[in-house]
Design a protein that fits this description.
The complex is a heterodimer of chains A (about 375) and B (about 300). By secondary structure, chain A is an alpha/beta fold. Helix content of chain A is about 40%, strand content about 20%. In chain A, helix 6 crosses helix 7 and helix 11 crosses helix 14. The chains are: A alpha/beta (about 375), B mainly alpha (about 300).
Chain lengths: ~375, ~300
Amino acid sequence: MSERSDGYRTGTDEASGAGGASAVMENPPSIETSGLRLTYSDGTEAVRDVSLSVPAGEFFGFLGPNGAGKTTAIKVLATLLKPTDGKVEVNGFDAESEPRKIRESIGYMAQEIGVDEELTARENLQFACAGYGVPRSERPGRIDELLDLVDLLDVADQKAENFSGGMQKRLDAATALVHRPPLVFLDEPTTGLDPKARNRLWKYFREINDEGTTIFLTTQYLEEADQLCDRISVILDGEIVATGSPAELKQQVGGEILDIDVETDGESSDAGDGRGDTDGASDDPREQAAAVARSSDLFENGATIEKSDEGISVTSQRARSRGTDLLVALRDAGLTVTGFNVRAPTLDDVFLAITDGEEREPDRETGSDDADEAAAARTATDGGRRR
Amino acid sequence: MSTPTETAETTETGRSERTAEREVRRSSNSFVGDIWINFKRWNIKAVRNPFVLVTSLVQPIIFLILFTQVFGAVATNAINAGAGSISYETFLVPAIAIQVALAAAVTSGVGLVNDIEEDVFEKVLVMPMNRGAVFAGKSAAEILRIVVQIAIILGLGVLLGAEIAMGVLGAIGIMLIGLLFSIWFLAYSNILAVLTKDQESTIIGANLLQFPLLFLSSAFLPLGSLPRWIQVIAAFNPVTYGVDAARALMLDRDVMTVLEVTAFSGIWNTLVPAVVVLVVLDLAFGGVAVYLLTRATSSDAK
C-alpha cells in the first residue's frame, strides 16, 4: 500500500526480471475500475457498469464496434472525463483525487490527431516534452530518438500541416511517448492508416510493450487485437460482454468460416423465409447445399451450418481441412459451386457468437444430440443476426 | 518520520538504477514553467501566422484615420470646450489603443476554439500541466501581441500629429494600461470559447459587444458633450476606465469625469480609480475563465 502511494510502478521491473506471466501478476494492476458508469448530459449511457483490471505489462485490448463506449471509457481512464459513478484507479492513483498524478504517468493517443499544424514535428515534440516535464538536458536526445523511431527525422523541421495523415498520426504517437510512460492509452490508433503505416505502428507498439510498457488499446478490428493483445475485453453498448485472450474469444466462434456460394435459378432467392423448409425436399439449392453439409459427417458436432444470401456458411474447427471434401460432396449432389472462401472469424462473428451464446445456451446442449433441432434454432435466430 | 522517508528514497534509487536505461526521470512541472511552455507555443504560432496580428490592427487604424479626418474639425471644438488646445488626434489615440486591446482580445477565444477543434486542446488537458498556467501562458503571449500593437498605434498616432505629453514614459504607461485592460476581455472571449466551443459564436459574442462598448464610453468624445443616458452607461463601462487612464497619461492630467476622485494629485486622480476598476474586472473574468478551463473536459458528462 505504501509502495503504491509514493509512486507508480513502472512496469519495467518485471521486464528486467523473469519476464514471465507470474511476475506480471505480482505487480499492482495498472488499471483497476469497478462499477464504472458514464452518462452524458443528454442522457446517453455510454459506459455502464464496467469493471476491469489490467495488470502491469499487459497489452490489453478493448474491442467493440463504433458507439460501443470504447472512447468514452478510455477518456475516463485518461482523466479527460469524470465518471458518473464507480471507482477508477490508474497506476495506483485515484482518478477522482489525484488526476494529475495519473496524467504524469500515462501517455494518451486520441482517436483524432492532436498535432499543432502550425508547429514543426520537432516543435510539437518539444512542447510535449515540456508539458510532460522531461528534463531539459534529455529532450534533444529523446526527441531525435522518437523522430527516428516514427521515421520523421528527415522532415523534423517541417510544419506538420504539410504532413500526410499517416505522418501526423505517427507524430501524434511520438508526442504521447516522450516521457516514457509506464502505461499508454491508444484509442483506435490505426484507423484510417494504410497497411504499411499500420504495420509500422504495430511494430512500435509491440516494442514498447516488450520493454515493459502496459498498453491499453481500443480497436474495431479483431485482426488488430489478435495481432497485438494479450487479452481482450469485448464491449457492446457500454458493457463488457466477454473477456479473454484472442484465441479464447475466437474459440467462442467455433472455428473458421467456410463460405460457399451455389448457383441458384434466381426465382427462389427468398433469403428470409425459407425457414419452414428444413425437411430437405426444398427446391432452393442453398437449402439443398445446407442439407448436404449437415448429413455429410465432415464437420464436428459443434459446427454451425446455415444458409447465407448466396449459398451456405459453415463455421467449424475443420473449415479449412474439410472444405474441399464438402465441395466434392456438393458436386456429387448435383449442385454448382460458384464461390468458395475460408476466412478467419471477424469481429462480427465474435459478436454474433457471444450474443448468440447468451441467447441459445439451452439449445446448444440438446442441439448436439439432435442436429435438426439445432439447425432450426440456428435458422430461427438467422433473421436477427443479419442486420 | 525520518525512517519512512529513508525507505522511500532507497526504493526510489533502487528502482531508478534498475530502470536507468529506459526511464526518463521526470522533473515535476512548475507553475512558471508551465506558463513559459504555453507562452512559447502561442508566440511561435503568432509569428507563423502574422495575419491575426495584422487583421486586428486594421479596423482600429481605419478608425484612427477616418475619425480624425471626418470628425476632426467638429470634435476639436467639443474637446476644447473649456480652455485648451488639444488636437483630436491626441484625444483619439488613447481610445484607439484601447480599441486595439478589445479587437485583439477577441482573437484569443478564437485561438482556443481552434485548439479544441483540432484536438490539440484535449492533448494539452491530458498533460500534467497546471491548467491555470496553460491559460496564463496563452494569455501572456496574446497580451504581448496587444502591447506591440498598441506601440504601433502610438507610433502611427504621433506620425499623424498626436502628442504624448509625458513622452516615452507616457507611451509605456499607455501600453501597461492596454495590457491591464485587455485581460478581462481576453478572459471573456475565452469563456465564450469554452462554453460555445464554436468559432462563429465566439467571434460574434465578442464583436457584438465591441462597438456598443466603444461608443457608449468616453472614447470618441468627452462625456460632457454626450446625452445623459450615455453618461450613465459610460460610468459602468470598462472602456471608459481604460480610455480615461490612457488619456490621462497622454495628456498628463486628470481626465476622469465618471468618478470624482480628488484624494490624490493630478493624473493619479484618474489612474488610481481606473486601475482599481480594471484589476477587479480582470480578477473576476480571469477567475471565471480559469475555473471553466480547469474543469474543462472533452465532452459533456453528467
